[in-house]
Amino acid sequence: MKKAVVTLGAIFLPLALSSTVMASAVEQTKGSYVDKFRQLDEVLPTPNVYRSAAGEPGEKYWQQHVNYDIDVKLDENARRLTASQTIEYKNNSPHTLKYLWLQLDQNIFKSDSIAERTATFNGSALQGDPQPKATKLSLSQLRRQQFMSDNELGFTIANVKDDNGKELKVTVVDTLMRIDLNEPLKPGKDTEFSMDFAFNIVEEDAVGARSGYEHFEKDGNDIFLLAQWFPRLAAYTDYEAWTNKAFLGSGEFTLEFGDYDVEITVPADHIVSATGKLDNASSVLTRTQRNRLEQAKNTKRPVFIVTEDEALENEKEGTDKTKTWHFKAENVRDFAWASSRKFMWDAKGYQQGGNDQPLVMAMSFFPKEGGDLWKKYSTEAIVHTMEVYSRFSFDYPYPVAQSVNGPVGGMEYPMITFNGPRTELQDDGSRTYSQAEKRFLIGVVIHEVGHIYFPMVVNSDERQWTWMDEGLNSFLDGVAGREWDPTIPWGVEPRDVVAYMKSENQVPVMTQSDSVLRLGPNAYTKPAAALNILREVILGRELFDFAFKEYAQRWKYKRPTPADFFRTMEEASGVDLDWFWRGWFYSTDHVDISLDKVYQLRLDTKNPDIDFNRLRDIEAAKPMPLFVERNKAEAKKLWVEENSDVIDFYDENDRFTVTNKERNSYNKFLKGLEPWERKVLDRAVAEDKNYYVLEFSNLGGLVMPILLELSYEDGTKEERMIPAEIWRRNHKHVQKLIITDKNKPLVSVTVDPRWETADVDVENNNYPRRIIPSRIEVYKKEQSKAKVSRDIMHDIKTELKTGDEKDSDKEQE
């Protein structure tokens, strides 16, 4: 894995083909052998001065640095942002840059964007004849189309100038903008430019986005979640140069680290949550709120900075006055914020890594619709996340960690996350939530706050490899969730990916984000399950945890690629894992190991007096033929019994009778043995152990360790793990010899008894095969209530009811 390779950059292609058809310098032309343990030499990029063969940053590793100074104003009534920004760009690369690329993510909502023009129809199946069944189009789809056509969306960019006030030429390409520099930017130099921009904020519930506003009809207020809200520098990297692939929706954002100074002007009664530390609390918070915030630093449970009663009072009426909130953030790769008069706000200090480490403020912002669910669990889940993730990586590196409730189900940014679960308002005025909603809130807060570690600090390229942040993060949120309460069904066990693993509608994990067929199981569940198996089954916790933490610390504030992760995990654990990456990340194989047969063998002693007696016992143990059994039952006499005077040698000696010739042969055999051979044979005969040959088939194609549970006649059980390398010479069929003591005969064998390898068929894991448990449900067949035709003569006599009246059950049917 650490050798120089032939194919440069192969890992950066969308690998939708299995590993057996990848371009390779090695070609198998004879027989049917497939090398599942072949090294990834032809796939991984050649190590260089930027990225070493060990998977760590090379001696000349570099990355760009970008600082932003932004003034932004929220027009609540128009639901529009207007802003100006100054950007300082430092060129740390060894290349001279003639132009810069910026991301204009809001342009994805323009009617002529690539995303909109390539959107496919998602209605029900079409039929040529409209009479039998109409094609369905949801009201949500119609709502989206209407909003998009009624509003002018996307960025408006103006006044793009360099630091001398000279205009810069810009070229907009879909969700990207190229700025041509007036002077080439040489290595080690920096440049500064400014611009004005504005856009109309989308209604998230209507459009379906990663940010936007949510309108509450009953109180007339909005929650604004602002992300991807300013033109941002695209990443310029050592492995791809400009990462200027259009934003199509699935592939998220690859960005550069820098410092932010952001002033946010909003209605004076709004509460703002944002990336960074609030720099002007005395100007925007009351003395009481500032005192509460100070008190929250040292409390066991969260303290309300803005109480529910205060938030409800804010909801009653708006204001024409404004306040400007000033936030500063250092060494972050993005900036997001939220604003609403509906927010209540709680906080709790978290002391990590000893009292000498900076205090982190965990904070939540949510409306009354969040109810007790948010009051109890949001901020506590933030703290729990930091406790767990820091064990696997590094101390949380920022001063605040925030969870904000709004229309976005779950999104992450430095120091701030957007999370969606709500409570249900009941008829009695109370608010309740189901276990699923509780699990959703705790799970999504853990997941999104976990993203502040991956990829907001360990800065992987989300546009290309979604799994590098979603998969790693899903693995860790699975750890945190089960450490919160393992009885809650988190859906993160290997068994939970089985249905996807055996499905046909999938692509390899190493597929570019926008080409993935089923993003959730592909980028989240499958890699998370793979890492869970790597930790619990293959490496063990000690080796895995050491290697994973090494990866996180090596690439903190840097930009790793898949090769860096694969190489680090192998180099730090000391275990060859190329077969594992190849199977789980580069193929669509699945795990299905079948235990086909178990042979019980007994060692021949070579002593005819022992071995022939054993053969006689084996013959006697065979079932009696039905013919013989019935003749005995009918007391039929045999011919030899009726003619006893005609008895010969073979009537008194069977075919298992031992002769002296055979004994002489045995004695001769013993004399011909070397002393050590005689010793081995005598011990084997004396111990008389049980020998079993287990025959396995790999039906799924994915090679994995074989986990065995051996059940013995005395009621005891034993677990054994056969490493995956058993498949290295034949990936389809293998046999394994198992030897047990004389007093420990096997009665059954089970493969993967704890369901820890995502084996898609556990019924072929048992020998002998088990009776398969299932269920049956009794039901009463009801006649269809569907009308075959309209009875217009009768229906026209129906009284027209107002919207306030309720139809009878009969009419509703």
Which tags fit this structure?
alpha+beta; 6-stranded mixed beta sheet; 22 helices; 24% strand; elongated; disordered N terminus
In short:
Residues 378-584 form the Peptidase M1 membrane alanine aminopeptidase domain. 27% of the residues lie in helices and 24% in strands. It is α+β, with helices and mostly antiparallel strands and 813 residues long.
Helix/strand layout:
Blueprint: E1 65-75, E2 80-90, E3 97-103, H1 114-117, H2 139-150, E4 156-162, E5 169-173, E6 176-185, E7 190-200, H3 204-207, E8 212-216, E9 221-226, E10 232-233, E11 236-237, E12 241-242, E13 258-267, E14 271-274, E15 277-278, H4 281-284, H5 287-295, E16 303-306, H6 308-315, E17 322-332, E18 337-340, E19 344-351, E20 359-366, H7 371-392, E21 400-405, E22 410-413, E23 416-419, E24 424-425, E25 431-432, H8 435-450, H9 467-484, H10 498-501, H11 519-539, H12 541-554, H13 562-573, H14 578-585, E26 593-601, H15 608-620, H16 626-633, H17 639-642, H18 649-652, H19 660-671, H20 675-687, E27 690-698, E28 706-712, E29 717-722, E30 733-740, E31 746-751, E32 766-767, H21 792-795, H22 809-812
Parallel strand pairs: 1-13, 20-21, 21-23
Antiparallel strand pairs: 1-2, 2-7, 3-6, 3-10, 4-7, 5-6, 8-9, 9-18, 11-12, 13-17, 14-18, 15-17, 16-19, 19-20, 22-23, 24-25, 26-27, 27-30, 28-29, 28-31, 31-32
